[in-house]
């Protein structure tokens, strides 16, 4: 490709397109469906589109919150949270938990979900979700640009200390990713799609 074949832009000066392509390019992205609790006992459940895994040993996952939201505030207080797998069967409930409500409002109740107590953390998991990670917060970092200017965003990292997996998702000792019908975030606001077996393929990594 030559320069004439490329749409080039500097993010600080605008993208010049109908929609910002950044989110659509970094796709698909797993959904961070995070449950947390504050020191007053109020439970929160919310989806985050900036989420992923970062380390094998110890197993660490993390998500970034734009603005200081209830979820991050809860984790700063209690240092615990649970990640719940968002699936096609739970898409509507997951979307319902994205509503902006007061901290004392329980999103589990709004979405009609079952709050199952954690085993190692004092935070409930989504009973209907086939997979859940109980986590202990390892770090909360305010993000900043290359110029050192702080962004209105916080990255929360947590060590997975307990894992719940529906046995129906395990075959011959191997977790079946597509069997859970996970949904992932695509490009623009509200764009999601399902991971399907026919869309998956395997490549042998070189030694």
TrEMBL record:
Gene3D superfamilies: Electron Transport, Fmn-binding Protein, Chain A (2.30.110.10). GO terms for molecular function: FMN binding; oxidoreductase activity, acting on the CH-NH group of donors, NAD or NADP as acceptor. SUPFAM superfamilies: FMN-binding split barrel (SSF50475). InterPro entries: Flavin_Rdtase-like_dom, Split_barrel_FMN-bd. Residues 24-177 form the Flavin reductase like domain. It holds the Pfam family Flavin_Reduct. This is Flavin reductase (DIM6/NTAB) family NADH-FMN oxidoreductase RutF. It comes from Bradyrhizobium sacchari.
């Amino acid at each position: 490709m030559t320069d004439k074949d490329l749409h080039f832009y500097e993010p600080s000066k605008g993208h010049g397109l109908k929609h910002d392509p950044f989110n659509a390019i970094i796709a698909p992205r797993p959904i961070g469906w995070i449950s947390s609790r504050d020191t007053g006992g109020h439970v929160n459940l919310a989806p985050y589109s900036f989420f992923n895994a970062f380390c094998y040993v110890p197993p660490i996952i993390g998500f970034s919150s734009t603005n200081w939201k209830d979820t991050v505030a809860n984790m700063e207080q209690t240092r615990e949270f649970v990640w719940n797998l968002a699936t096609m069967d739970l898409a509507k409930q997951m979307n319902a938990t994205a509503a902006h409500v007061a901290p004392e409002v329980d999103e589990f109740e709004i979405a009609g979900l079952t709050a199952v107590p954690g085993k190692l953390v004092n935070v409930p998991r989504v009973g209907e979700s086939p997979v859940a990670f109980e986590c202990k917060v390892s770090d909360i970092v305010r993000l900043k640009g290359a110029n050192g200017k702080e962004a209105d965003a916080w990255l929360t990292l947590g060590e997975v200390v307990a894992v719940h997996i529906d046995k129906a998702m395990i075959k011959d000792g191997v977790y079946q990713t597509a069997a859970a019908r996970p949904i992932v975030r695509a490009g623009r606001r509200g764009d999601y799609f399902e991971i399907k077996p026919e869309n998956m393929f395997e490549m042998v990594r070189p030694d």
